[in-house]
# Entry
Amino acid sequence: MCRAQVINFPRRGSSSYPAEIMHRLQHLANRSLIAGVFDQSPALVRTKARETSCLVQSIRLKTQGPVEEYGLKRFSTAGATVVLRENGKMREKTLTMDTINPQVKAVEYAVRGAIVTKAGDIERGLQQGQKHPFTEVIKANIGDSHAMGQKPITFLRQVVALCSFPDLLNSPSFPEDAKQRARRILQGCGGQSLGSYSASQGVDCIRQDIAVYIEQRDKGVPADWDNIYLTTGASDGIVSILKMLVSGQGRSRSGVMIPIPQYPLYSAAISEMEAVQINYYLDEDNCWALDINELHRAYQAAKEHCHPRVICIINPGNPTGQVQSKKCIEEVLHFAYEENLFVMSDEVYQDNVYSPDCQFHSFKKVLYEMGPEYFNTVELASFHSTSKGYSGECGFRGGYMEVLNLDLEVKAQLVKLLSVRLCPPVSGQAAMDVIVNPPLPHEPSYLQFHKEKSAVLGALAEKAQMTEQILNTVPGIKCNPVQGAMYAFPRIFIPLRAVEEAKSLGMSPDMMYCLRLLEETGICLVPGSGFGQREGTYHFRMTILPTTEKLKVLLEKLRDFHIKFLKEYASLEEPKR
# Structure
């Protein structure tokens, strides 16, 4: 009697199999037989041949009736799926947790980590009718403006729509200034189509517009469009520059100085590239300012085990929301000049400055004002994006970087590296062009554009102030002013008993805090440990992007939860402020 070890056969809505499937099954069976020929006796091979023939004939007979009667399941495009080997063991997978690149396992990205996964599970459960002590999950974990309810900027969407479907250029529904920009962008595209590849550095006319924007932003500091590279969001540019900088082995391995707290892209990229992460701590007691003495401390300590080659700055800050002063930027650039460091300036929040006492200063402008000795020698890469600012167009994945003072041969290597990914999304490049080339006062779209932009930035400024004020009324929470960007990063007091419980569960105390917050209130925040923090301190990051009404609800729920948390774990402990 023949016994088959073949599972999962085709199901096409009919009870019989097409002839080509049977042919492929016969081929599969023969291949399985041949695989064992060379280590089997002739008699055993003949026996297996009879079994294989019997197997195929059995399937032909059985599939004359309804498929379901014989336990046959999903269709596989391979015709049939052989699950078991002759010895009954599963085929071993090539890629396992033991064989995967260990640098991939080392990568962590808290913004989309375990908390967010849990929030997604809860959200799906709510949709399926599961009961929770809340009716919705409020996600304040990521800077995704449109997901939080922000409306698109009309002019930007008009230009991208015209570029995507040029027939609309004949429509009277679109303003002439939007059409002019769309025509110019399309003329720079191959075949005058947004669907063509661009040059690896980006569409030339968009790079030229970016250079004009930078000159205007920096009050006349010259910008060469040949130093401009369009990127897939700012992240793509940051990773590309880091790839260029990482080299060496042992004590000569490249060290990358990053602020703590930091945006997890940096630590993730450093882990993936096996570079050395050099932490320098921002001064929480001084509104997260950058302390030059701390830079020197971190640099000197790192020299003992690596070669520090680059310093990264995020201004305005993520997750900390500070705006660095001009004096502070001058000190950083002088430090980089003295220690021969490459400077990476993450400036994606340059439009997000809310405090009247603060102003955005680009690293390039400050470098220029320090004189030719600095401006012509310090290697500087600055990054911008469509994802933040007032547009919040995260999904377009548009961005650019300006790279100064690269060695000419190294510059050619950068272009080669960028060419491997062909080009950034051309639709994202078009969106980036609108941000650097918005309507001018004499153009028909200016009034609506200005009104929408001002409304977005005005609402963010109000929510930044409201968040700081409400959090600072809660016992055991201290929040620095949210001067810019899109986040608050308050320090939270966690009682010793809660710290010990978290450690017994194998997690950081602020992770346990945020999990409890999610499970009891539906609020999704990111624990400070995902961004880095001084030992013995605890924080969380929250966006200020929800609507004003929803943000008030979030802050009230958070206040009530925190007081309850303190009462549960610290009935006799005095909360620290």
Summary: Confidence is low (pLDDT under 50) at residues 1-18, 27-45, 58-76.
